[in-house]
Amino acid sequence: MSNYYNIIRDFFLNFGIDLDKFNITYDMFPRKNKSEWGYNFSIETRNDSRILANVKNQYSEFKVLLHETGHGVHSFLQDPNELILNSGINGIVTEGIANLFGSFLHDELFYKSFFDENVEGEFRQMAEYEKLSYLRFIGNIFFDHELYRNDVTSLYNPSHIYAQLFYGRCNL
């Protein structure tokens, strides 16, 4: 993992995205009291982005780096004048972009620099399993959609929307 930046940078170059042009700071390695999850913090859109991860020396950890770097790149490529995509960007847009880059973990374009053997079948199976496991997020997407469709004026509103969506008619 000590060469993580070069690997990620070279991969993003496949899309014409030069990470060296962006001020993305990576805090990668475990330390006491550090969260085990990966995060991207856009300090200032188009100017400063930070990635906090807690990776160990495993190939699968590159998914976190690809995903969070997708968030970081997205923060630099946003047009502040584009209101639809930037005014309170919702989870569907931001996670969609980050998930796209994270999904390349199982794509030959990314894994070919790690493995010499014929591993296409194994990576194809892992990608199919992962696609199926994403079905569990459909409810979250519907909830996110309903939050945007409804006027949320109190803490009661999200609870009520959640109850209606997941439990049917509910008198809270």
UniProtKB/TrEMBL annotation:
GO term, biological process aspect, one: proteolysis
What are the record keywords, sorted? Hydrolase, Metal-binding, Metalloprotease, Protease, Zinc
- Give the matching Pfam families: Peptidase_M3
Q: Name the source's superkingdom.
A: Bacteria
Record carries keyword Ribosomal protein = no
Residues in domain Peptidase M3A/M3B catalytic?
Answer: 26-77
- The answer to keyword rRNA processing applying to this record is no
Cofactors required: Zn(2+)
Give the co-factor note: Binds 1 zinc ion.
Q: Which GO terms describe its molecular function?
A: metal ion binding; metalloendopeptidase activity
Q: Which residues cross the membrane?
A: none
Q: Which InterPro entries match?
A: Pept_M3A_M3B_dom (IPR001567)
The similarity annotation says:
Belongs to the peptidase M3 family.
Query: What is the protein's given name?
Result: Peptidase domain containing protein
Q: Which organism is it from?
A: [Clostridium] ultunense Esp
Q: What is the lineage of its organism?
A: Bacteria, Bacillati, Bacillota, Tissierellia, Tissierellales
